[in-house]
Design a protein that fits this description.
Layout (H helix, E strand, L loop, with lengths): L18 E4 L2 E4 L35 E7 L5 H4 L24 E5 L1 E2 L19 H4 L8 H9 L8 E4 L21 H9 L4 H13 L3 H15 L2 H28 L20 H17 L5 E6 L15 H5 L5 H26 L2 E2 L2 E2 L4 E7 L14 E5 L7 E3 L6 E2 L1 H10 L21
Parallel strand pairs: 3-7, 3-10, 4-12, 5-13, 6-7
Antiparallel strand pairs: 1-2, 4-11, 8-9, 10-11
Amino acid sequence: MSAFRPARRPGDALPRRTVLKAAGVGLALPWLSAMDGRTAAAAEETPTAPELPEIERGDGPPRRFVAFTLSLGLLGENLNPKQAGKGWEPSRYLEPLTDLRDQLTILSGVSHPGVRSGHRAEASLLTANPAGGNGRGRNTISLDQYLAKHLGGSTRFPSLVLSGGGSNSPCYTDGGAMIPAQDRVEDLFAELFVEDDPAARRQHAQRAAHGRSVMDLVLDDANRLSREVGAGDRRRLDEYFSGVRDLEVRMAADEKWAKSKKPQVEMEPPDEIRDANEFIAKQALMSEVVKLALETDSTRYVVHHLGGSNHRAPLPGVNTGWHSLSHHGKEDDKLTQLAIVEAALIASWGDFLRSLGEVKESGRSLLDSTTVLLTSNLGNASNHDNRNMPVLLAGGGYQHGQHLAHDPQDNAPLPKLFTTIANRHGLGIDRFFGDPGTQSGLELA
């Protein structure tokens, strides 16, 4: 029996709690303009992900993507070299990374067009969608989830969304929903490498198998409803039903993985770092587990987010919380302390790059096949400026060793880099969301 009744009279609003039902299965619907009785023309436009042509699959090791994202920016004068091109001298933050020069590109003078919402732009960081940060519209899919959606089906975990503390993340689904982050390294390690007992594995497989046929059961109702709504709502329903189908595919894969043994690693299960002030040490420990996840091909797409906490890093010379330091107001003492914290974060990131470089596969290093991005939604956290975002790109087989310097007053569009990364993974798109498709300079060979 169906809860949906077709043949509505023109102008009648669709009940807000419309549910498609069949064979005891209920599927709640997303918001539709028809639920307010509005016409399709009056409905708010929903951002859409780029069209996807046939995927180009190359030979060799699989390509991976890891993003380290920061909520509180980085001091540009300490990060970006003064020289552009290949002849740059290491900045204060990059001095410890000189051995990685040939695997590193610095981008300056870049930002997301139209994003001007301070801390809230964290929601736009990997989507490049201004609506993600201003609260007046719907977000779209983040770069990591776009890659995982189309390429993540070969691994036990299509993607990992991690945090140094708390559940917030810059990772968003097709429908604009934030994906909560895993912030416990103990739990992450267990999910990746600790074998479930046989009873738990059977129960997991049964749960996955039970939920696979929701769309098949409600398909007739879904088709009838699609004929009764306007073009805008029909598009929303198509996206929603496509998302349900994707979920079912993932559940089917989950059933397969529930019956498969997890990889064995030499690392002992780590102890959780419970002191919130030790966020840099936690970043390093989480990075160790991420390296193992990539090395065992448990996943290929990872985001590790460090939110804007005010914890005080236990570093010599630091006596103030990170968030307070980031709002330095150009005070010398705060700038000095902030530089110590940020330099430690960059050094830890460099250690992660080196760890990938030490792993060999098919005659290449794991770093060669892994694009590693470090960035923040804030170029200047002190005045909440989203322009001049800090951007470091490493690995992935690009032609590195350069500083791509752009105009700090007229920034180049960072979404062009997202397009480049997507195409490096074989997706062959014309542009990612927010990429104007005109200005050059962020394409890396």
